[in-house]
Specification:
The complex is a heterotrimer of chains A (434), B (180) and C (331).
Chain A (H helix, E strand, L loop, with lengths): L6 H11 L4 E5 L11 E7 L2 E8 L7 H5 L4 H9 L8 H14 L5 H29 L3 H22 L8 E2 L2 E2 L8 H23 L2 H7 L7 H6 L4 H6 L6 H4 L5 H4 L17 H25 L11 H10 L2 E9 L2 E9 L8 E5 L1 H4 L4 H5 L7 H7 L4 H4 L8 H35 L1
Helix pairs in contact in A: 3-4, 5-6, 5-13, 5-17, 6-7, 7-13
Chain B lengths: L2 H12 L4 E10 L5 E9 L5 H11 L2 E11 L2 E10 L8 E10 L4 E3 L9 H11 L2 E3 L25 H21 L1
Parallel strand pairs in B: 2-5, 6-7
Antiparallel strand pairs in B: 1-2, 3-4, 4-5
Helix pairs in contact in B: 1-2
Chain C lengths: L2 H33 L9 H11 L10 H20 L16 H21 L3 H34 L8 H6 L8 H21 L11 H4 L9 H26 L5 H4 L3 H30 L5 H30 L2
Classes of the chains: A mainly alpha (434), B alpha/beta (180), C mainly alpha (331).
Chain lengths: 434, 180, 331
């Protein structure tokens, strides 16, 4: 009935396009990749001639699951879309639901959301910096950066109770206040990071071996970034001042007057390479520090949530009808959630999630153009990919079928292990004699 | 960029074919409040390329996502655009609703106007079975290549059964290998 | 030297070399970890690693050429061990003294790398093939400065009338630093730096670990190796580290403590051996551990450019200064 597209044809076409190339698969399991995604490169010598990208190894069917659960459960599910930017998806979905259900949020809650969001940006960018250093074979920097990332996680734990998955936003506000007695500790941490900025600049931007590996590598021109709809630091490193916090303000961001940062703000020429992406992320760490400090000064007193009782909130949500769009500038770029609520239903009728890596998938193609094999890891890492963020969907049937599936899969997995084991021994034994 | 300008440009191009127009404005912020605007509108699928071209001429255009839902005999697609994303003058979110009949699920692809739309179009293709005419790459993006169903369609027959069938088939294939 | 005596000596050197090699490998990992602000593995970790590898299954991929794939690790290990026997230890002459000289040692040092490349090509994985190509390209670029440094010293010794000048025992017994004039001294310094720069590449350590490059080609050359084969490569690397460091010591810092302190006999020899081990450790620490902590991995073209231009030029300048020194000093 439906026309079938044969994936092999595309592979053949790419192979034919470069007859002198040989095919190198990277992924779905590869040390350069922290998550499963498959790149196929056609390589001539050390140069990449063609690339094909195939995601689809990390599906969990979250959007489908969301339409089977009540909205509060969906919020926690959204938190688990991504482990690193775990606050980004809740922050986007609360906006969508608040818009759909017409909920007014108290100002203090909006400031607290900004504080947590920006703390997360600091930790996410530091995490990325460590990963990038590791991809370059610079493990010393990885260990250093991940060590100095600990204080911000400690602060997050102090404020929210968790290092990751903070469970802070709720429809109509936040679940925990940031009381004034916690300000000094938070300010100390910010002062600590401010004092480290010079070190970061020295270690990342003035290091000759890092510069040699990142300058002119993985270039994305601003025209390409624009037409391929790149988002977040990837777009900004190409000179586009795209930032949801600036263009389509939300929470307390209009009060803070956020500006999108590009390498120009550091007095550098925009080249759109990996180096520029490091520059932008470093600038954003500084920006986040400033934003949090500003928040602490300007934060108004008052309520932190419109619905102190969850039961009242659920009742309100059940009556609500409408649709809403929520956007948030996650550390990696724009997150957008679209939600449609129907009166009398606890679960959302439609829930669509877009993570930043989704938009940054297409820009990968021009970035890999004519690069060397050695550049693959850092170029792949330079958009700060979050694969399981991007792929939320998997075919999941109703609860019953899912359970059946799980058992069966487990059984199949055992059976397969046995088969593989027997095959391996068969195959190996002649080799042993030689 | 103001919603009114966007609207005038769209109406100039499409005239009466743009329906159920709605401009929503919200004020955000407390000390320095700012206004942000949405446009919601319904258009025919044939008018989509014209509408997007109009938007693109107006200001830098960004496609955030295409949302989709099964609405009985048709599939509802919602295109979320950011018009003027990344400009000093601010951004307007434009959301187009399209109805696509299930017996003829064809929509013109935006990839020639906005190459960045490919990812989200491929996703709608595999999940909802919407065919995008002129899409450069019609392979599956997230789902397994062997899968022949569109999991977001509510009338998809025997979705659960299909999953079990795939698994059973794999087992059979593996057994065959073992014997050989 | 009787054959039996040589055999005993060889066994002693190999066992001692193994122990010291593992100790230095452990120290290297521990110190690198401390430099990176980590705790690091225990000193015995390399031994545990090898024991574990020896217990593991030896898998030969279907796409490999089995005999070549299996032969490569043995070849690498055997040549590395043989090279160790050509190394003067402290004030003792090499075990195989008289059976080969510096040139042979240079060849022996090249063979493990070639064997690794061979094994990589034979393993039939695209990652290993890329790794093998990189190994060969890198070898071609660093062998030249290495050869210049070695030959330069031997030639200068020959011009001074000391011979057989290519014998490592002769080189170790006659430190050139005191025999040449100021120009020659600067030349020697240049050669020393060039040789130190080559050391991490010889050992495929960051920033020159491109044939393995974990994050790029998933271990490259070794991607298909497992079990005993991988253990042999590991052992070859352990021994090769000693040999390279030993070569640097023999060529440039062959000084002993026994003679200046006036200790003779067995006590003097033991003291010299201990001092030799300290010098060896110094070379390993500064040329391998510190370097691999302080830099990011380079790309293959950057490695080639680094060795073919600055390092080779430095070595050639050193050689030229030695020649000038001969002219000035009149040899």
């Amino acid at each position: 009935m439906r026309e079938k597209v044969k994936p092999e044809e595309k592979t053949e076409e790419l192979t034919k396009a470069c007859p002198t190339c040989f095919e190198v698969p990277i992924g779905p399991i590869h040390p350069a990749l922290k998550e499963g995604i498959r790149f196929t490169f056609w390589i001539e010598g050390e140069r990449i001639r063609k690339v094909d990208i195939r995601p689809g190894f990390m599906h969990r069917g979250i959007e489908f699951m969301g339409t089977k659960r009540n909205l509060i459960q969906v919020l926690y599910l959204a938190e688990r879309i991504c482990g690193i930017c775990s606050i980004s998806h809740p922050l986007a979905i609360v906006q969508a639901v608040e818009q759909a259900a017409g909920i007014e949020v108290p100002p203090r809650a909006q400031y607290i959301r900004v504080i947590i969001g920006e703390l997360e940006r600091i930790h996410s960018h530091l995490l990325w910096a460590g990963v990038a250093a590791h991809e370059l074979g610079f493990d010393t920097l990885l260990h250093y950066v991940w060590k100095v990332r600990e204080p911000v996680l400690d602060i997050l734990e102090d404020l929210t109770g968790n290092r990751i998955d903070y469970a802070i936003p709720i429809y109509g506000g936040v679940r925990r206040d940031v009381p004034p007695e916690k300000y000094p500790k938070l300010k100390d941490a910010l002062r600590y990071y401010r004092s480290l900025v010079d070190d970061f600049v020295n270690f990342f931007l003035r290091d000759p071996s890092i510069e040699a590996r990142t300058r002119g590598v993985g270039v994305l021109t601003s025209e390409e970034a624009d037409s391929l709809c790149a988002v977040g630091p990837t777009a900004r490193a190409s000179g586009l001042r795209k930032d949801v916090r600036q263009d389509w303000p939300y929470f307390a961001y209009p009060d803070l007057e956020v500006k999108a940062l590009t390498p120009e703000d550091m007095g550098l020429e925009v080249r759109g390479d990996v180096y520029d992406r490091i520059v932008v992320r470093l600038l954003e760490v500084v920006q986040s520090i400033e934003l949090i400090e500003q928040c602490l000064e300007e934060m108004p007193e008052g309520e932190i949530t419109a619905f102190p009782k969850v039961a009242a909130l659920l009742a309100h949500l059940k009556k609500a009808e409408g649709e809403g769009v929520g956007r948030h500038e996650a550390p990696r770029g724009e997150v957008i959630h679209y939600i449609r609520l129907e009166a009398g239903e606890e679960a959302p009728a439609v829930w669509k999630v877009k993570a930043p890596t989704y938009s940054n998938l297409m820009p990968w193609y021009p970035m890999f153009r004519d690069q060397e094999i050695a550049d693959i890891p850092i170029v792949a890492a330079s958009i700060d990919p979050c694969i399981c963020c991007m792929e939320r969907v998997q075919i999941v049937c109703d609860g019953k079928a899912e359970t059946l599936l799980k058992d069966e899969l487990l059984r199949l997995s055992w059976a397969k292990t046995e088969r593989v084991a027997s095959r391996v021994t068969r195959q190996v034994s002649p080799g042993r004699g030689g | 960029m103001r919603a009114q300008e966007v609207l005038e440009a769209l109406q100039g191009k499409l005239g009466g074919r743009i329906r159920n127009l709605e401009i929503k404005a919200e004020t955000v912020g407390y000390r320095r409040p700012r206004e942000r605007e949405f446009i919601w509108a319904e258009i025919d699928r044939g008018d989509l390329p014209d509408a997007v071209r109009t938007l693109k001429e107006l200001a830098p255009l960004h496609i955030s996502i295409i949302s989709g839902a099964d609405a009985g005999d048709r599939i509802e697609l919602i295109y979320h655009f950011g018009v003027g994303y990344g400009t000093e003058t601010g951004e307007v979110m434009v959301n187009f609703r399209l109805a696509v009949p299930k017996d003829d699920p064809k929509v013109p692809s935006l990839c020639d106007i906005l190459p960045g739309a490919e990812t989200t179009e491929r996703e709608k293709l595999e999940f909802l079975g919407v065919e995008f005419e002129g899409i450069p790459d019609a392979r599956k993006l997230f789902l397994p290549d062997e899968l022949e169903i569109h999991p977001w369609r509510k009338d998809e027959p025997d979705l659960a059964k299909y999953v079990r069938r795939t698994v059973a088939w794999e087992e059979k294939k593996d057994e065959g290998k073992g014997e050989a | 030297m009787s054959g039996l005596n040589a055999l005993w000596q060889a066994i002693l050197v190999l066992v001692g070399g193994g122990v010291v090699g593992f100790l230095y490998k452990g120290l290297d990992r521990k110190l690198a970890a401390r430099l990176q602000g980590r705790i690091g593995p225990p000193l015995r970790q390399p031994v545990l690693d090898v024991i574990k590898l020896l217990l593991k299954e030896n898998i030969v991929p279907r796409t490999a050429i089995p005999w070549l794939f299996q032969a490569a690790p043995f070849l690498a290990f055997i040549t590395a061990v043989t090279a160790l026997l050509y190394l003067p230890i402290g004030s003792l002459a090499p075990v195989l003294h008289g059976y080969g000289d510096l040139v042979l040692l240079l060849y022996l040092l090249a063979i493990p790398a070639l064997a690794m490349a061979m094994g990589g090509f034979a393993s039939g994985s695209p990652y290993a093939v890329v790794g093998a190509q990189r190994e060969i390209v890198m070898m071609m670029s660093y062998e030249f400065p290495l050869a210049i440094a070695a030959v330069g010293i031997a030639w200068r010794l020959a011009t001074l009338g000391i011979g057989p000048s290519f014998s490592l025992a002769t080189i170790a017994a006659n430190p050139l630093w005191g025999l040449v004039g100021p120009l020659g001294w600067i030349g020697l310094l240049f050669l020393f730096v060039a040789l130190l720069a080559v050391t991490p590449a010889e050992l495929s350590k960051i920033p020159f670990d491109i044939p393995e490059a974990e994050t790029e080609i998933a271990g490259g050359l070794f991607v298909e190796y497992s079990g005993v084969n991988l253990a042999l490569f590991y052992l070859a690397d352990v021994i090769k580290t000693l040999v390279i460091a030993g070569l640097v010591v023999a060529l440039f810092i062959p000084y002993g403590l026994a003679v200046p302190l006036g200790i003779t006999g067995v006590g003097g020899q033991v003291l010299d051996i201990l001092f030799f081990l300290v010098k060896l450790f110094g070379v390993v620490f500064f040329a391998v551990t510190v370097v691999r902590v302080a830099f990011a991995r380079l790309k293959v073209d950057q490695v080639v450019r680094l060795y073919l231009l600055p390092t080779t030029l430095l070595a050639l300048a050193g050689l030229l200064l030695l020649v000038l020194d001969k002219v000035v000093m009149g040899g």
